[in-house]
Amino acid sequence: MSTLDDTKTRIIFAAIKAVRQYGLEGVRIQVDEKLRAIMSSIYDASAAAAEEYGLGYDLIAGNDIAAFKKISEAMIAQGL
């Protein structure tokens, strides 16, 4: 067996072991929860920025403003 074949075999067995240990459903649930938290945070920031700047419920404009504010705050924190 070549080194490449041996490496592939080890990767496959590691993946099988991980699936057995953690289960695909558990991983899917963790990913889903994290994605929901991220999306909720984006929505909240977009809605708040739109409201703050008098744009009503314009989530696209609110998201642009929120993203700009987040980037500019990071740049200021870095001294740029």
How does this model look, in words?
The chain is an all-alpha fold and 80 residues long. It is 85% helix and 0% strand. It is built from 3 helices and no strands. It has helices at 3-22, 24-52, 59-77. Helix 2 (24-52) packs across helix 3 (59-77). The longest helix is centred in the middle third of the chain and has 29 residues, at 24-52. It is elongated. The N and C termini lie far apart (55 Å). The mean pLDDT is 86.
Quick one: how many beta strands?
0
Order of helices and strands: HHH
Helix content: over 70%
User: In oligomeric terms, what are we looking at?
Assistant: single chain
Give unreliable regions as ranges.
none
**Distance between the ends:** 55 Å
Radius of gyration: 22 Å
Mean pLDDT: 86
Condensed summary:
The protein has 80 residues and is mainly α.
Topology:
Elements: H1 3-22, H2 24-52, H3 59-77
What attributes characterize this protein structure?
80 residues; mainly alpha; 3 helices; 85% helix
